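pls design
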């Protein structure tokens, strides 16, 4: 995302979710390849509505593809998903708070030391889950009918 002076003010990335079970769990095994995650949104400016306008723009770029977009708002960061709500994502509830093996500062829990004698656990906060469908009307309708999470207010 660039401002009127053509200076970079934001980046958004989409990718395959780390959780294979999530890909299957959203709308079933046969649609798992269609599941992508809006996994990063970074803005340098705090302009009014910039985040929601930027996300909406990115979603419009994907509208010719039949995709299921999942994103999370991390409660530990005091995020509630207002940007996703403004972009008409479906709110499907919050994930459960869990614990992960501590792997060291700056490392993902998947990279813990398997040889360690002492295993430390750290809390993983609950996250609000949001889902958005792109593509044809028929694809969106099929996904809504097959959505395995309840849509909540």
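designed seq:
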């Amino acid at each position: 995302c660039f401002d009127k002076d053509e200076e970079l003010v934001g980046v958004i990335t989409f990718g395959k979710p780390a959780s294979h079970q999530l890909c299957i769990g959203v709308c079933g095994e046969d649609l798992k390849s269609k599941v992508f995650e809006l996994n990063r949104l970074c803005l340098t400016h705090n302009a009014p509505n910039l985040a929601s306008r930027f996300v909406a723009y990115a979603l419009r770029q994907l509208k010719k593809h039949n995709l299921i977009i999942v994103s999370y708002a991390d409660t530990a960061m005091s995020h509630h998903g207002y940007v996703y709500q403004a972009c008409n994502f479906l709110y499907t509830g919050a994930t459960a708070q869990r614990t992960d093996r501590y792997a060291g500062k700056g490392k993902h829990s998947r990279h813990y030391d398997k040889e360690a004698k002492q295993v430390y656990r750290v809390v993983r906060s609950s996250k609000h889950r949001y889902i958005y469908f792109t593509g044809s009307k028929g694809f969106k309708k099929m996904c809504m009918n097959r959505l395995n999470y309840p849509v909540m207010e």
